[in-house]
Amino acid sequence: MLMQLLKAMESGAGAGGAGGGDDENLDKVFMGIMEQLSNKEMLYEPMKELHDKFGPWLLENRDKVSKEDLERYELQSVLVAEIVGKFDEEGYSDEKPADRAYIWEKMQKMQAAGSPPDALVSNPLADELGLPGAFAGGGGDAEMPQCPQQ
């Protein structure tokens, strides 16, 4: 799938940016990738795991985070619950445009809300490298003291 995206980008660049059809082709490839990444098969298990962890984490850490972070995390918890709930609905299908649109909308809201707490998100690469929180995306307490910040 990544190769398709790179080929589409390459063909657009090779045309000098003059071809409107190239932009349309790139959009189609990008949307295809996004649909594959936002389907139930890819998202259900991580979302279910996050959903199961969020409630207890919020109870335990309510007084340990800023008011702004708490509001953001509570919103994320609601969004995750809505996504899992939709996936669990009888008759849910990635093939139904309304179901896909619902999941896509919730995922966009999750993205806009920032990263969930680091403690709730497993990161096998960072764990394997012995750098917990290293690739967290700036949503938590993980510090890397030797890493220059901009």
TrEMBL record:
Gene3D superfamilies: Pex19, mPTS binding domain. Residues 131-150 are annotated as: Disordered. The lineage of its organism: Eukaryota, Fungi, Dikarya, Ascomycota, Pezizomycotina. This is Peroxin-19. GO terms for cellular component: peroxisomal membrane. It comes from the Eukaryota. GO terms for biological process: protein import into peroxisome membrane. GO terms for molecular function: peroxisome membrane targeting sequence binding. It holds the Pfam family Pex19. It comes from Blastomyces silverae.
